[in-house]
Structures are given as C-alpha cells and as structure tokens.
Design a protein that fits this description.
By secondary structure, the chain is an alpha/beta fold. Helices cover about 35% and strands about 20% of the residues. Strand 5, helix 5 and strand 6 form a beta-alpha-beta unit.
C-alpha cells in the first residue's frame, strides 16, 4: 500500500472500574488510535502509551509529538508491501517503541485486509482459541479484591493475577490462597520492590504462585537473575524486556523463567514475534500482556496470542471488563471456560465502530 495520509485520534474512554497498580490509579483511558490511509484498505493501530510516563518513559503527549514530528513523516508517501517493512523506516528514531508499534501494527492490519487473510495467520499464529486470564488492580479493601476474584473465576477466567506493592502483598495473597488453594495465581509488582526486599519476596514462595512479574527495577536483568536464584517461584519480566535482544540477554542470565510479551512495549508486531521466537528457542513460555486497550489494540493482542509459544493464559480479557461499550463489533468475548475463539475473517476480525469512535474522539489530526 502507498501511505497517503495518517490520522491520529485521541478518544476519552472511562473504565468500568478504576485500575490501580503500584504506580497509580487510572479512571479514564486516553486512547490513542492511528489510521493509515492509502490506495488499499485502511489500517488501524493503537498506541498504548499511558496517560503518564510511569509504566515506561512513554506517555500520550510524547507519543503524539514523536509521531507527528518524526515517525509519520518517515512513512508518508512510502509504498509498503508489508507491515514488516515499517521498523526499518522508523529505525533512525531511538526508542519510542509504543509510538512505533501503533504505526507498524496499523500497517499489518491493512496488509491482512489487502491480502484477504486473517491477521493472526499473517503473524504466523496457529491457535484457534486462546486462553485468558485477568489482571486485577489494587482495590480499596481486601474484601473488594476477593469479591472481584470470585466474579472473574465464576466467569471462567483461567488465571488470576493481582497487582502487589509493599503493604498490599502477603496479607492479601494469604487470604486468596486460604479461600482458593488451587487456582492459577500470579502477582505483578510493576517494579515496586528492591533488593532490600529479598527475604520478603522469598516468603511469597509459600503461595505457590505461577509467577512474580517484574518485582525489581524496570530496566534490570542482573538483580532479577540474582533474585531468581533465591526463589522457587518463577520470575516473569514485563517492563525490562523491550526487544528480542533483551529477551535473549535476560534468558541467558536466568533473570526470569517466563516472558510477558506486549506488542507496544517491544515496538510492534515484528519485534513481538522475534521476542516470542527467542523465548521459544530457550524453552521458556510466553504470554500476552495487556495495557487496558480499546478494541483496536485488544483485537491485535488476540491475533498475536495465537502464536505457538503463547503457552500461558494472557491478560487479554473481555471488552466488557473495561468498557461499557467497546469500539469494535463484535466486542472481544470470553467463553465460560476462559477462552476467546479466533475468527477466520480477513484482517483483525473485529469491525471498527466508526460512529462510536467519532463520538468518543476529543482530538484529531490528519497528516498527509
Ligand atoms: O504491568 O501488566 C501490566 C496495565 C497497565 C500498565 C501495566 C500493566 C497493566 C495490566 C493490565 O496489568 C492488563 C490488562 O488487563 O490490560
Ligand atoms: Mg506487568
């Protein structure tokens, strides 16, 4: 496709329930969507940068700026045969992976439609259904968290992940394990601990967790490797793995035994596939992370999760857990056994509800 214009849109979408991590609470998502226009079908992508630079250094205003100033101009007027060609065109700009991913993924999205194949097949996927878990934020009380877990288990979700931080960890894990001794349970610290917490983190072993996600610094492998040696529980890295090279370094060092793959965090589908392949080569299971995506990013996560080494339930869950109404049709739905069925339709398999996108848009800019 020849890229003739690129539309940037910010949507304001209130979450059904606030989401709290060790770095703060979110009530409303500022959803940043990209549309590529050209001589073929439109391609859609989502930039998952947060409202604030707390998960990583990227944030929505910065992503909007780098896309308008540098990344979109690098694509405008170019003719692409595939989404795979995008990283090379954006390579001169360092980092800004979430911004790059939004553009690259939109190109894959268009490519799948143009070729008349499902996006998941284009990515090299093979699963006809994917396994789903949920990520449950920090709540106002333990009772509220237990109630949420009960609801999600009743809905069929195969794995529960809770957010932890100092002061919201062992007490609540103890209560969960007392009530549900056998569920697949994990926790995510989003870098809330330090080496001074080593003994404390060791005490998590008694909860038989599937994994502890990113307990230490967001850019660290070395101390995670040291910590991993002290623990029975598997560590999983999220924030720290930004590329296939990172994955290789982390796995060689023994910094984790499980890998969380987020397509935005690593800079797009090409790099996400490469990270997947590295983990597979090391015999390490991967799972697909989430960033509270709207239907656009969510449908892309569903497609990515069909690759063979996504062997653990992901944080890819039903649209209705986040949104009163999602901007795709159908919405992402999860079966009573905690799975999402994969569509055979060409492209992402979920139509964009343009009327709703229009109604939720608070800022729009088209570059050509
Ligand atoms: O660390 O996985 C994370 C949400 C925002 C930022 C970071 C993370 C998360 C989640 C939510 O855990 C996953 C989801 O349900 O989309
Ligand atoms: Mg995480």
């Amino acid at each position: 496709m020849r890229i003739e214009a690129i539309t940037l849109r910010e949507l304001k979408m209130p979450l059904v329930h606030f989401f709290e991590t060790s770095f703060g609470r979110t009530y409303t998502r500022r959803i940043f969507l990209i549309t590529l226009h050209g001589d073929g079908p439109e391609g859609w992508g989502e930039c998952v940068a947060g409202e604030n630079p707390y998960f990583s250094e990227e944030y929505i205003e910065g992503a909007w700026d780098i896309i308008t100033r540098y990344l979109a101009p690098a694509l405008l007027g170019k003719t692409l045969r595939s989404g795979r060609e995008v990283p090379r065109l954006l390579a001169q700009v360092r980092e800004h992976r979430m911004a790059k991913a939004a553009l690259e993924n939109a190109a894959w999205d268009a490519e799948a439609l143009e070729k008349g194949v499902p996006l998941w097949k284009l990515l090299g996927g093979e699963r006809r259904e994917i396994a789903c878990g949920v990520s449950i934020g920090i709540q106002d009380s333990h009772a509220q968290l237990l109630e949420k877990i009960e609801t999600e288990l009743a809905a069929g979700y195969q794995r529960i992940k809770i957010k932890v931080k100092p002061g919201w960890d062992v007490d609540v894990l103890e209560k969960i394990r007392t009530r549900w001794p056998d569920i697949l349970l994990s926790c995510d610290a989003n870098s809330a601990y330090t080496l001074a917490d080593e003994q404390h983190l060791k005490s998590f072993d008694r909860f038989k967790l599937l994994m502890i996600e990113q307990p230490l610094w967001s850019n660290d492998f070395y101390f995670h490797a040291r910590l991993q040696k002290q623990l029975q529980t598997a560590l999983c890295l999220d924030e720290a793995i930004r590329s296939a090279r990172d994955a290789e370094a982390a796995l060689e060092l023994g910094a984790c035994r499980i890998v969380n793959i987020k397509v935005g965090r690593v800079g797009g589908f090409s790099e996400a596939i490469a990270v997947h392949d590295v983990a597979q080569r090391f015999g390490v299971p991967a799972w697909c992370g989430g960033m509270l995506e709207s239907g656009v990013g969510r449908s892309h996560n569903v497609a990515l999760s069909t690759l063979a080494n996504f062997r653990l339930p992901g944080d890819v869950s039903a649209s209705k857990r986040y949104w009163k109404e999602d901007i795709i049709e159908p919405e992402v739905e999860v079966s009573s056994t905690g799975t999402i069925a994969i569509s055979d339709q060409p492209g992402r398999g979920y139509e964009i509800r343009k009327d709703l996108v229009e109604a939720l848009t608070v800022r729009e800019e088209t570059l050509s």
